[in-house]
Amino acid sequence: MKFFIDTANVDEIRTVHSWGVLSGVTTNPSLVAKSGREFTDVLKEICDIAEGVESVSAEVLSDDAEGMLKEAEPLVNISDKITVKVPMTTEGLKAVHGFAKQGIRTNVTLIFSANQALMAARAGASYVSPFLGRLDDISHDGVELIGQISRIFDLHAIDTEIIAASVRHPLHVIQAAESGAHIATLPYKVLGQLVKHPLTDQGIEKFKQDWEQANNG
Ligand code: E4P
Fold first, then answer.
1. Which entry of 31, 62, 120, 129 is 20 to 30 Å from 97 by CA?
2. According to its UniProt record, which reaction does this protein catalyse (predicted)?
3. Domain boundaries, the chain
4. Active-site residue, selected from the candidate residues 34, 85, 101, 196
5. Would you list the DSSP string of the chain?
6. Ligand 1 in contact with 120 (CB < 6 A)?
């Protein structure tokens, strides 16, 4: 499973990119609004920082397919890393189909059922984003949805990649990986949490102490 970061904060992207683990970036309108910056400016900077990453998702807000295709024009011109993030609606499917014909990658977002994922894949989506945390919030099993989509895609040889989205904590990451997600897009905080273990910290401290004792008396 690959790691994307779910943020529009360029400092967070720069930091995680420096760790060598970053395969992509996802943004959404709420995250861009939080950054307080102009959309195309922030996308340009993200694409510059994220050297070597496969995808930077930029979401369109139009309700109709024609509007989505138009809205995406300046975004896809920024870089070939840009993946257009499209909402899961019939107009979104039409737009995904149109983008696929132009060789433009899409990430269909706000997926909450396996049928939605299958429809998005058949329209030509490069990625589908089932939202784990938001399903858990309403007492549905987000992890089980990832497993279901993964089994269906495997059974029918569908090569659309599954992005586990709306990930809230490290356990979600393990569960998404075990359930067959190709990618998890994670908030900065969760990416940091994956690295930490108290026994690692204690072990580093003990090695240093023992070394100093042996060498400095
Ligand atoms: C995914 O692409 C979305 O940006 C994101 O994961 C949504 O997460 P949230 O439910 O924490 O807002």
1. 31
2. D-sedoheptulose 7-phosphate + D-glyceraldehyde 3-phosphate = D-erythrose 4-phosphate + beta-D-fructose 6-phosphate
3. 2-216
4. 85
5. -EEEEE---HHHHHHHHHTT-EEEEE--HHHHHHHTS-HHHHHHHHHHHSTT-SEEEEE---SSHHHHHHHHHHHHTT-TTEEEEEESSHHHHHHHHHHHHTT--EEEEEE-SHHHHHHHHHHT-SEEEEBHHHHHHTT--HHHHHHHHHHHHHHTT--PEEEEBS--SHHHHHHHHHHT-SEEEE-HHHHHHHH--HHHHHHHHHHHHHHHHHHH-
6. no
